[in-house]
Amino acid sequence: MSTSQRDPDGSKSLFRMLESAVSPIVSGDFGPPHRDRAAMSSRVSFSQLRLEAEVDRYRAECQWGKVLAVVEQMHAARIHEDDDYGMLLTAEVLLEECLLENMELLRSSTPLMDKTQPRLSKVKGHLNTILSRGLLTPRYLNEALLLTAKVHYVQARYRDAQGMCARVGLEELTQEDQPTYHLRLLAEAFVIKGLSLDHQTVSSVSRVRLSEREEESLSCFLRACDAALSYLQELDKMVSTPHSKTFKTSSGVSAVDVDLGYFLQAALQSAYLCLLQRGHLAQGAHQLRRVLRVVESRGSQSFRKCAAMKLAQVLLGSVSEDSYWLPLGPPPAAWLAREGAAASKDAIYPTVKPPQRYSTDGCFCPQDVVEEAVLLLLITESMTSGEAVISRLPDQNLARQSSLQDATSVYDLLTIGMARRGQYAELSECLERAMKFSFDEFHLWNQL
């Protein structure tokens, strides 16, 4: 029996089968089934999450070159092509690299000009585009505002910088489950606002308004310091315990290698320097003691050395035996009254993100001013002598002179402190340790 006799519609059925098989080819539809498309979409979203997590980590570690590399990967994968996220990251990298290259100008409050800083001009163009379009989420728009505040500050437009900081959602940066780099942004936002207030002219400001401005800037400095210390602690945890196998190979930087930059250094130091500059010695000493009780992180070692040195200077130069108060207690009421305060500033301005502090249970506590100062100096001397540059090579001359100057300051204060108690044998041991890097340096040899 023929096929047509068995199935009169066989040819039509065969045609339908061929049509269904050929139609995707004719229409150009080579796409996978719905399940495969869902799997591909899942892979794309996972890739985006992975790249964004890498960016957050590199921004926390200030590895700006690696941030640009991830931005290029996002661009190739067409991730964030409908917003300005890549432009925001590019602007941040250019700005941070520009600031790192101009640290001396920033320390001397010399404005950075567009003519001499072409990268700064690019940053301003990117940020203006981002803010005018408004394509980013509120979180990233706040970050763009903070970058703009930085640009205004380094170009000496302090009122504009303060205005940008006022628009930044600082409360959002303090929420739980935020990336570590938000603590850095928080510290920078507070210190930029505080420094901008201090830099503004005061000729036409009343005495009451001036006092209010000083209090506002001090509260910004106190919050900036605690946020910066919390950032360094979280950064230390991130580097010590990578979150995934990806970062074990791609992120081998330690917290010590991170250049803190101008604004983070200012965030750590501005509070106690501001208090001491205004003559508030008791509150300045109290702030120094607070930061030294913070759990140490590798990124804070240099800052802790400077803070311990400054506190020893204050104790030996401004605190007598009779007016000394124990390190764990608040400043005496008599000291606060002389400085025009009813309570310590940290009690008046609670921090938004307190860093972790050491427990004081069972710890050693100095009982007099010389004991505390000498203890601080011995710790500082150990760090300073260990970091001293011994090399006599010409290219190491500046580094050697800088480390020698730091060490000399420590040994001078140790001489004052130990001589008050007649501890000359212990002082000689300290000075002998300095001989390894003090060749042909008369001052330390003469002290010994």
TrEMBL record:
<dbReference type="GO" id="GO:0005886">
    <property type="term" value="C:plasma membrane"/>
</dbReference>
<dbReference type="InterPro" id="IPR051722">
    <property type="entry name" value="Endocytosis_PI4K-reg_protein"/>
</dbReference>
<feature type="domain" description="Tetratricopeptide repeat protein 7 N-terminal">
    <location>
        <begin position="40"/>
        <end position="431"/>
    </location>
</feature>
<dbReference type="GO" id="GO:0046854">
    <property type="term" value="P:phosphatidylinositol phosphate biosynthetic process"/>
</dbReference>
<dbReference type="Pfam" id="PF19440">
    <property type="entry name" value="TTC7_N"/>
</dbReference>
<protein>
    <submittedName>
        <fullName>Tetratricopeptide repeat protein 7A</fullName>
    </submittedName>
</protein>
<dbReference type="GO" id="GO:0072659">
    <property type="term" value="P:protein localization to plasma membrane"/>
</dbReference>
<dbReference type="InterPro" id="IPR045819">
    <property type="entry name" value="TTC7_N"/>
</dbReference>
